[in-house]
Amino acid sequence: MAESRKSKISAARRLALKTKLLKTATVMLEDEKEQKKLKRETTLRERVPPLQLSGLSLQDLQALCKELHQKIDVVDEERYDTEVKVAKNNKEVFDLKGKMKRPALKRVKISADAMLGALLGSKVKESVDFKANLKTVKKEEEKKEEVTDWRKNVEAMSGMEGRKKLFDAGQ
């Protein structure tokens, strides 16, 4: 498994597949745009019938204008109502963000058994002994060197023991 895996598809084949995928994706995207455009046109034709102004008298034109103004007023009222609802919802959301403050918490003394009972409910029936579940670790006793006289230790470390004996013997 130290070798790196080789692709089962050659680089030329992979490139050909990528180009085919891109071509089909662009074709699908163009088709989707065309469908949206057709749907929009049909919806507009249904909602807004074409105006036939030729052959209408002055009174008919005035009546048509009044009717169009009434429709415009209805649409404007609906738009205004939705804008007010959106603004109200936004204001409520921002107000809630400002009002949510973290309360000051009080310290509560509770035993481990009571805490587990509160968290787990009646699932824990026997008391849990945490101290029994702890692993015991044996501490190694540190080896202490017994030093009776610090001068002996210093002389031993400096290598002066033999010279001191010579010095003492010479006096």
Description:
The chain has 171 residues and is an all-alpha fold. The relative contact order is 0.02. Among the domains are: 14-49; 56-99. The chain has helices at 11-47, 58-99, 112-120, 130-133, 150-158, 161-170.
Topology (elements, then pairings):
Elements: H1 11-47, H2 58-99, H3 112-120, H4 130-133, H5 150-158, H6 161-170
Function: Troponin I is the inhibitory subunit of troponin, the thin filament regulatory complex which confers calcium-sensitivity to striated muscle actomyosin ATPase activity.
GO molecular function, one term: actin binding
InterPro entries: Troponin, Troponin_I, Troponin_sf
For the structure shown, list the relevant keywords:
171 residues; mainly alpha; 6 helices; 65% helix; elongated; Troponin_I
The largest β sheet comes out as: none
Structural class: mainly alpha
Which spans of ≥5 residues are poorly predicted at pLDDT below 50?
none
> Could you state the oligomeric state of the chains shown?
single chain
The overall average pLDDT, rounded, is: 78
Percent range for β-strand residues = under 5%
Radius of gyration computed on alpha carbons:
47 Å
Number of helical segments? 6
Distance from N terminus to C terminus (CA atoms, Å) equals 82 Å
What is the total tally of β strands? 0
User: How much helicity do the residues have?
Assistant: 55-70%
Question: So what's the overall shape?
Answer: elongated
GO molecular function: actin binding
Pfam family, one: Troponin
Protein name: Troponin I4b, tandem duplicate 2
Keywords: Actin-binding, Muscle protein
